[in-house]
Design a protein that fits this description.
By secondary structure, this protein is mostly beta strands. The chain has helices at 124-127, 248-264; strands at 8-13, 20-25, 28-37, 44-51, 58-59, 64-74, 79-81, 84-88, 98-109, 116-117, 136-140, 147-149, 152-162, 168-174, 179-180, 189-200, 203-205, 209-214, 222-235. Strands 1, 12, 13, 14, 15, 16, 17, 18 and 19 form a nine-stranded antiparallel sheet that branches. Strands 2, 3, 4, 6, 7, 8, 9 and 11 form an eight-stranded antiparallel sheet that branches. The radius of gyration is 18 Å and the shape is globular.
């Protein structure tokens, strides 16, 4: 079903968020950060660095971006090398997938979504929740062609995903002092500063700052700092208005101990 989306503008400095370590033994480990917890219908965001584990087929109960900052992810029919992004509509199952290299990625939802592993759906009725017609998109920076940003001399943009319905992922390379003016984030948008700095409401935001905005009017834009800024922008469309419940924070409390036990079995 669809629901009204509350306006939201939240910022997190990832360098200040503690890491939680999970040791799976035999070279398997996971270090993770909980960035946004989905409180009050707001966004969910986690960051992880995973070694050794293979992610079994699963889905999330809202549309999702999976942003690979470094390393590689191998899916059944394609491979991603960071910087790259993977998108799914609500309840679209994917996996298994494995990881290699200096793996570092974010999983972000515009609203609480949770995580459901397919092997825990025991019967036909519960498996019917899987969205078999939803979108499954991916794109890589290495395959994107740099283009100018209209009205912004010296700026460049690379498009990783551009879907007709509205899902869009771009990397903006902004010269000093540029205002990154974007459309109203009706269904939600994440903005990640990966290089340089930006100013928001007179506050300086450094590298590894993640912002989520949602609302019917254009939000206060980021303005790049004295060294410029590189910003990855992930924009949702109307699928983000679909909700089927769930909480990533609560589901991870159940899934992580299972992963540890399965890794050592």
């Amino acid at each position: 079903m669809q629901e009204n989306l509350p306006s939201c503008d939240v910022v997190a400095d990832l360098k200040r968020i503690p890491w939680v370590h999970l040791d799976g033994g035999e070279g398997k480990s996971m270090d993770s950060q909980l960035i946004f917890d989905g409180a009050n219908g707001g966004p969910e965001a986690t960051r992880a660095r995973i070694k050794g584990f293979i992610s079994e087929p699963h889905f999330h109960r809202a549309s999702q971006f999976q942003l690979l900052l470094s390393g590689a992810m191998q899916f059944p029919t394609f491979r991603m090398d960071g910087v790259a992004v993977h998108y799914t509509d609500h309840c679209v199952a994917y996996g298994p997938h494995s990881r290699a290299g200096d793996h570092d990625f974010l999983v972000v939802h515009a609203k609480p979504a949770g995580l459901t592993r397919l092997k825990e759906l025991k019967d036909k009725e519960t498996r019917s929740v899987i969205n078999r017609k939803g979108r499954h998109l991916h794109g890589s920076e290495r395959d994107a062609r740099p283009e100018p940003v209209p009205g912004c001399p010296g700026a460049r943009q690379k498009t990783l995903i551009s879907d007709a319905r509205g899902v869009n992922v771009k990397i903006f390379e902004c010269p000093p002092g540029m205002e990154l003016k974007l459309d109203a984030p009706t269904y939600g948008r994440f903005e990640l500063i990966t290089k340089g700095s930006a100013v928001l409401n007179d506050k300086e935001l450094g590298e590894e700052t993640l912002r989520f905005v949602r609302g019917d009017t254009a939000e206060t834009p980021l303005r790049s700092g004295p060294q410029g800024a590189t910003v990855i922008v992930m924009t949702y469309d109307d699928d983000a208005a679909e909700t089927y419940g769930g909480s990533l924070l609560e589901d991870l409390k159940v899934v992580l101990p299972k992963l540890r036990a399965e890794a050592r079995a």
